[in-house]
Task: structure prediction
Amino acid sequence: MKRRREMEKGSEIQSAIEELSLLIKLKTSDNHDAALIPTRPFLYVCNLVIQVLDKIGPTMAVLRQDINQNVQKESDEANARKGASCSKAFVWLTRSLDFTVALLQRLVKDPDQEMEEAVKDSYNITLKPWHGWISSAAYRVALKLIPDTKAFINLLKRKDENNDTLAEDMETFISLLVPILEEIHSILIFYRLDKLKST
Result:
């Protein structure tokens, strides 16, 4: 309930900034057995991405469902005992956040960029290398249904927020999330999970 009230006061991006700001920095170490992955904040940020996808509407239903299923797998204690299932979910959640960061970076850099182009570029560098033909086909269908840039930006903003403030929030969010994703990627590489592809 507390988080729901917090989100009503601010945007999803501001809520994510608050959550990420609370994190203790990940310990950079060659000893990956001692590495700490901040699961609770990580899953919270994934849930915020789901809420943004809900705002966009049915056009992002496939991505939303995929992220939601992976969040459930990652947070369900029964699945946590099944290492492969939990590991796969974590890999795909990380890649979903990679996509989100890439998309936001493009929109901050060029707010007038066509949304379809921004999504294509972000998809090509983050998700496409790991998708099989079924996932790629689903992406191509979803691409035809995405909103334009202005509509998407308006979905991210609070009612009283201007574009400059939103851009600052997006930059702050990116600057907090990228180091965490880099550390997570190094752990995935260490455990040889970084090359996992969809079936």
Q: What stands out?
A: Residues 2-190 form a domain with the Glycolipid transfer protein, GLTP fold (CATH 1.10.3520.10). The first helix runs from residue 2 to 9. Confidence is low (pLDDT under 50) at residues 1-7, 24-29. The chain has one domain: 2-190.
